[in-house]
Write a structure and sequence with these properties.
About 20% of the residues lie in helices and about 40% in strands. It is α+β, with helices and mostly antiparallel strands and about 240 residues long. Strands 4-3-2-1-7-6-5 form a 7-stranded antiparallel sheet.
Length: about 240
């Protein structure tokens, strides 16, 4: 792939404050990214082992974070607070000051510093027109894998919601579809585009590889669409608290 990355940036046991009852409940919190360039989000699980076997209880995108801070000790020990542009917030407490500092540093780097760096370098706005663009198609060769034994020439179609795979010989035959919002990660190198599907996809979980000379273009199409989805979710955030 173009960049080597682990989709899990940080994880650990924390206590998240309920929005309405002002009490803290234990959970396993995981910070993830879809690719080496983001986007980033938090996943909440009831316990650590559930993170490997079950879907998260709650998911919250982090593209809308406006501030990351440490809560005063007199309010809550070892606590970290995220503030969002729509005036909502998320507070969670860690088991130690060192762990809280580590969560603070990671969140501040990815949610604040990276965003400021992109703005300073004048990164173009890729989101304003993605939903109005027609879907993009690429000629690829599907490689067989443990997840998908078929191998053939195909057409890969990228829309603002999903990746669709069609038979190149019969464009009416759709072979598979993968919603972008439940992809675990994706990337490309000089010869292949690769993504990992979650178990909620119709094909089940696994890695899917496509031989192509247009890996960078496919990556950019997918990445732009994923960013648009995350931006939309941040405009209507999913609450992480157990109310």
């Amino acid at each position: 792939m173009s960049s080597v990355f682990n989709d899990i940036i940080k994880q650990g046991r924390v206590k998240i404050r309920s929005q309405h009852f002002r009490i803290y409940r234990k959970c396993w919190l995981v910070m993830k990214r879809a690719s080496s360039e983001g986007p980033y989000w938090l996943e909440k699980y009831s316990k650590q082992r559930s993170a490997n076997t079950k879907s998260p209880q709650k998911v919250m995108g982090l593209t809308n974070v406006k501030n990351v801070s440490r809560s005063p000790r007199q309010q809550k020990k070892h606590a970290v607070m995220l503030e969002f542009r729509e005036e909502s917030s998320l507070t969670f407490a860690c088991k130690s000051e060192a762990e809280a500092d580590e969560w603070y540093n990671v969140l501040h780097i990815y949610c604040i510093q990276e965003k400021k760096k992109k703005l300073d370098f004048g990164e173009p706005d890729l989101l304003c027109h993605i939903r109005n663009e027609a879907c993009v198609q690429y000629h690829v060769f599907l490689l067989s894998s443990d997840s998908f034994t078929a191998h053939r020439e195909c057409t890969l179609q990228i829309t603002h919601k999903a990746i669709h795979l069609y038979n190149a010989q019969d464009p009416r035959q759709r072979i598979a579809s993968w919603p972008l919002k439940i992809l675990r990660r994706y990337g490309q190198d000089r010869t292949c585009f690769t993504f990992e599907a979650g178990r909620m996809c119709d094909t089940g979980e696994g890695l899917f590889r496509f031989l192509t000379a247009e890996g960078e273009a496919i990556y950019q199409s997918v990445h732009t669409a994923v960013l648009a989805i995350m931006e939309s979710q941040c405009s209507h955030p999913v609450r992480m608290q157990n109310d």
